[in-house]
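Human: I'm a chemist; would you kindly supply sequence and structure tokens for a protein?

Assistant:
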Amino acid sequence: MKPTEFVKVNGRFWGEHLGGVSEHLPGSHRTELAGQLLYPRLMVLTETPDWNILELVGVSREYRSLEVRRQKAASVEEYFGLGAGAPVVTLPGENVFKDATVATEVGRRELAARWPGAVKILGDEYVGAGEQLFGFAPGNYSVFDRVLLAHTAGSAVRVRWTFFAVAIHRSEPAGKYLDFLQNYINAAPHLDPVGTVSVPVDPAALRDDAFTSTYLAHGLQDVTVDEFLSNHEGILLSAFDATRLISRPHLERHDGAGEALTPDFLLERADGTHVVGDLALPLLESGANGKKHRRSVTRPVHDGAGRLAEYEEYFKVAENRAFVQTKYGVDVQDPRKLLIVGTQDIVTAEDLTQVAPTGAEILDYDTVLRLHLAAKS
């Protein structure tokens, strides 16, 4: 199937399916649903030399016609952040992962240690000693329906929640693909339609203006870092089991190593540990001349790796830690390092390897949002 045909087929199919769900279920079956029914916001169609990939992303309280984004990737492995090494799961023929977690053994341990709330969305677990998550084979259909992916490089970890994705070899014809989708949707429970998720949370947790995906960047480019953190503070606190967020802390150096550092945020967690992190998002920030400019995120992980390494070195120095404790009242010892990327950003195996020395955590914002909802449910 040519990429242009793949776009047309999916646009028509998902528009009819999700539109029908939104017109029927919330009204006639509201009391029978497990919770608030949430919909994707955007359809991402990725072309590689051998594969077509569809992914539904974003989270919305109401269904609106899906916006469409087309992009290219060098390979299906690049898209899913896979590198060399034995896979946890080999994918021959047709494969369906629904309400599941696919993780390397190390990735699974890190999930439990770093995000206790993730246990609520683990579902069926596919965990193995492999170095990579998947091994794709020609001619297969692979579906990832509300799946949590976790793998590592060194001590760095990449976590990604996939709302719905399907990867098919480009040799597959459109008719066969449509039959596959229709059969899959027909087999789903009536009250749990494909392409949606029901979340049993207090409706108040869904009313915040911050409850949106960063993929579309609607309004995002008019927001400063401080405004973004203020709007999303509750989401970040619950996702990381934190009790306090310090926005843009000014970290003076007391080791003579250079200029002061200003990470985007510092989280103090309920167990007394800390997370220092940056937002690799196209937000506004002030330059040296006081004028605001757009933050560049062309290579988010590559550009963020150096800053995360600086934060790690900063907190190794006792005088620096003493300064932070005096100024902000927090005793930071060996903090976790976090980079939040846009949902549209492909994080490659090379990216993860680059931040491995810092033990960084790489999450996209939609995954942070899903962890928040899990913590609140």
Q: What stands out?
A: The mean pLDDT is 89. The two ends are 41 Å apart (CA to CA). DSSP finds nine helices and 18 strands in the chain. Residues 220-341 form one domain.
